[in-house]
Amino acid sequence: MKHLLTLEQLSKEEILEILNLADQLKFQRKNNIEHHLLKGKTLGMIFQKSSTRTRVSFEVGMYELGGEALFLSSRDLQIGRGEPVEDTARVLSRYLDGIMIRTYKQSEVEALAKYGSVPIINALTDYCHPCQVLADLMTIREFKGAFEGLKATFIGDGNNMANSIIVGCLKLGMKVSIASPKGYEICDHIKEFTKQYPGMFEMTTDPMIAAKDADVIFTDVWASMGEESEADVRRKAFEGIYQVNDKLMAVANKDCMIQHCLPAHRGEEITAEVFEAHAEEIFEEAENRLHAQKAVMVMLMKD
Ligand code: CP
Ligand code: NVA
Prior knowledge:
The chain is α/β, with parallel strands linked by helices. It contains 12 helices and 9 strands. It folds into 2 domains: 12-129 and 289-301, Rossmann fold (3-Layer(aba) Sandwich), CATH 3.40.50.1370; 132-285, Rossmann fold. The protein is 43% helix and 14% strand. The chain has a 5-stranded parallel beta sheet with strand order 7-6-5-8-9. Strands 2-1-3-4 form a 4-stranded parallel beta sheet, with helices on both faces. Helix 2 (53-64) links the parallel strand 1 and strand 2 (68-73). The longest helix is centred in the last third of the chain and has 23 residues, at 279-301. The protein is globular and about 55 Å long. The structure holds phosphoric acid mono(formamide)ester and norvaline. Phosphoric acid mono(formamide)ester (CP) binds at residues 51-54, 124, 132, 261-262.
């Protein structure tokens, strides 16, 4: 593994290797066992969108690994004034040991990897959110013990989260069902990917069908970062149907868990009641961003 650009590019074995290392790093942190595996290394973190979890977990993660992290807002970088990503990649590669980027276009992340000479980590694009789904998979294994035989359901927009959830869960042997409104389905590229897993993937417009016998239900906001101007139109398409609520949970398995990448909009994609009833899993998921990303950084940046 040279970069983390998408989950499609990782094998099942590589994903499991990340999750195993993440579990080990979580154990070491909880037991105050020093784990300065990236002593003297520096990570640059380019942000073209807002962040709470990603920024803090990468920064703290790097610190705990004995290295440093630099927060690089696109408002301050010359990239924000039009300097090409190809040049930024070649310059930053001469100072840094790794680059994490959160941006809009997946092609920008791919360009960084092509022109740079250090490992690149995708910390969310409009297309995917691999770091989040590694943390989600880690959380599912913590709560359920294994992946094979489980059914994962995604309710909502066919967005970056849906894409990475589908890829990650199918690769690890889970069945996946997704319910999205017409016009907000996953892209053709991911539809094509699912064909490698016959009988394991289902797409519907009916959340009740998707949630039937689910072991894990995922949801995400109706309007993602960069889609703020579409919020009203999207609300009309999703409202009253694409929500994780008690009625939906009633058709899932009794011990069904919930994963939400956060931030959550209570009363929209999930009710406040269901969110609070599953807060334990959701906030463990948020914590696991730290451990999973530390594992990714160690695998990519350790000498
Ligand atoms: N889930 C997630 O990526 O959160 P932030 O946008 O706060 O980083
Ligand atoms: N789909 C959301 C995920 C946020 C972590 C967004 O892109 O805004």
